[in-house]
Amino acid sequence: MKDDIKLKLAVLPSTPGVYQYFDKEGTIIYVGKAINLKKRVSSYFTKTHDDGKTRVLVSKIVDIKHIVVATETDALLLENNLIKKYKPKYNVLLKDDKTYPWICIKKERFPRIFVTRKMIRDGSEYFGPYTSVKTAYALLDLIKELYQIRSCMFDLSHENINTGKFKVCLDYHIKKCKGPCEGLQTESAYNTQITAIRNIIKGNFKQSLVAFHQMMHRFAENMEFEEAQKIKEKMDLLSNYQAKSTIVNPTINNVDVFSILSDETAGYVNFFKISNGSIIQSHTIEMKKKLDESDKELLELAIVELRERFNSISPEILVPFKVNVGENIKVTVPKQGDKLRVVELSIRNAKYYRQEQFKQVQIIDPERHTKRIMAQMKLDLRLSAEPKHIECFDNSNIQGTHPVAACVVFRDGKPSKKDYRHFNIKTVEGPDDFASMEEAVYRRYKRLLDEDQPLPQLILIDGGKGQLSSALKSLDLLGLRNKIAIIGIAKRLEELFFPDDPIPLYLDKKSETLKILQQLRNEAHRFGITHHRNRRSNTALNSELETIPGIGKQSVESLLQYFKSVKRIKSATVEQLSSVLGNARAKKLHNFYHKNE
Q1: Phi then psi for 183, rounded to 5 degrees?
Q2: Is-contact 462 497, C-beta < 8 A?
Q3: Where is the signal peptide, in residue numbers (predicted)?
């Protein structure tokens, strides 16, 4: 496997998406979908394939690209669009050019609603496509259960209804339709139902649920409990229905979509090309910053570059904020609906591309990756220096028994386990976390000062304002206040507390800075709990030693001083024990642990 392919596989996300394989000429030779991109794409290169066509395909792959989507359904739809657009050599093309079904709201008086595979551009509304015809019909059945809409194909014009041309059918008598053909339902009342149905198809259930809830209460107040129960059943149907997610919309036609994410060194711009309601192209680029350019400046440059590169003449672009790209292009900043969802999908792809670039740098150039992380932490935590050396403290006790504290050390964002330290709390009685934290911090930095060892750039305290204040007391006693940055992290909302600042800092839950702080906190907790358990276990075993006839407290201390642990005492021979206790007591101790042998 080529090195560049290995690198791309290493940084693929474990999310739903579509992958594209390219040959040496840059031609797409295969398009596929996956629930987990990393697992699916990696399987082509790690498994032995019995199929000869697959082996030939893998041998011709020189580049891999992917598009991240929200769900498996989205992946299936996007795969279908790209296969039809590019007709890759190794894809099994649909022989009958089968298309996915849509739900149509027909443009007519008293609109009909039905499932169709043909899209006729006569002003009717089409929703979908649906990857399964069963899903489309299931939604249509739900709509018919909730609302009384006509199924006939009559031309319900004013003239035809007024002249009594039509008569109600069976649907009216079984309460599936309210008889608009005979003028028994007004057009405005029917269109109110259509508005509600349109919202349900789009996944907006709130208004329908509110209306049904009001109807149910009216029936109940009028003692019409059977009708109220029917409405309740409709509400349950609606609540249990899982809305589809759409990746395409036939009303979005011949549009380019652009979005940008940036950090201190570069901007990452994603581009989608949409034609006839389908995403047919995706590309992401990295733009290095030279003069601290703004996102607006970078995006404007990227739009011109990408439209020229892909020969795009789309009259409209969708972007997350206003840009100036000339008078001949319509710039739209969507605030809701399907256009906004497409822009959000573009931002998600830019985000994943940025993460993959970081992962590649981490593999190829770990030193550069570390420098970037340190610079980001310095910026996020408002520090005066990069936190290359961080120490984190945590307490552990059960109702005040065997109180201990742990100190873990990270260097360049990674654990330095040889520098970990634990403390048996000596001056505190009872469960007092604040006093325990004060003692541990004081002892740690008193020793570093006495031994003239380097101090950390950042101290992280596991706890809120109380634990942070206790740690600050120790720094004050040692004259280290304002010489070492110190913050507290509270578990519940991941709040970061700073000295003399009553307002906590909240970092993005996905930020790398917060992840490192969480890793520090979790590692300190793990290290402290392990030591605490060992102390409790040793205390119990020491008590067990003192119950052996002829073995007193002084003997236990001598044994532990010599053998260092109870485990070694248990496995020692009579001769080894005799050197500490003498023959008689050594035999008693050995027999106690080996009486079954």
Answers
A1: 75, 20
A2: no
A3: none
Rounded Cα distance between 449 and 425, Å, is: 20
Dist. CA 143–CA 147, nearest whole Å = 6
Residue whose C-alpha is closest to residue 456's, from 518, 385, 395, 527: 385
User: DSSP secondary structure string, 43-98?
Assistant: HHHHSPP--HHHHHHHHH--EEEEEE-SSHHHHHHHHHHHHHHH--TTS---TT--
Q: Give the per-residue pLDDT at 410.
A: 93
DSSP string, 536-574: HHHHHHHHHHHTSTT--HHHHHHHHHHHSSHHHHHH--H
Beta bridge partners of 33: 18
**47 against 270, higher pLDDT:** 270
Q: Taking the chain, what is the end-to-end CA distance rounded to the nearest angstrom? A: 57
Burial state string for 473-499 with b = 16 or more CB within 10 A and e = fewer than 16:
bbbeebebeeebbbbbbbeeebbbbbb
Between CA 359 and CA 14 the distance in angstroms is 14
Instruction: Indicate the residue type of 224.
Output: E
- Encode pLDDT of 171-206 as tens digits: 889 888 999 998 899 999 999 989 888 877 766 666
In this structure, are residues 92 and 31 in contact, taking their beta carbons and an 8 Å threshold? Answer: no
Rounded to two decimals, the pTM is 0.44
Q: Tell me which residue has tokens 């934290």.
A: 437
Rounded-to-integer distance, Cα 16 and Cα 32, Å: 11
Provide the β-strand partners of residue 288. Answer: 266
Count CA atoms closer than 13 A to 456's CA, side-chain side.
Answer: 25
Tell which residue, 584, 18, 570, has the closest CA to residue 272: 18
Cα→Cα distances 434→55, 401, 403, 447, 558, Å: 64, 15, 12, 20, 35
> Token pair of 42, please?
């990696």
- Whether 32 has a pLDDT exceeding 50, the answer reads yes
Which CA distances in Å does 1 have to 4, 213, 449? Answer: 9, 61, 53
Q: Which residues contact 457 (CB under 8 A, 6 or more apart)?
A: 383, 385, 386, 387, 388, 389, 390, 484, 485
CA distance to 125, 145, 163, 188, per residue, from 154 (Å): 19, 22, 14, 18
Write the pLDDT tens digit of every residue in 400-434: 456 788 899 999 888 998 988 888 877 776 667 78
- Per-residue model confidence as pLDDT tens digits over 458-484: 999 988 888 899 999 999 999 898 889
- Grouping H, G, I as helix, E, B as strand and the rest as coil, residue 462 is strand
Query: Alpha-carbon distance 191 to 145, whole Å?
Result: 17
Separation CA 47–CA 54 (nearest Å): 11
Sorted by sequence, the CB contacts under 8 Å of residue 330 that are 6+ apart come out as 315, 316, 317
Strand partners for 20 = 31, 65
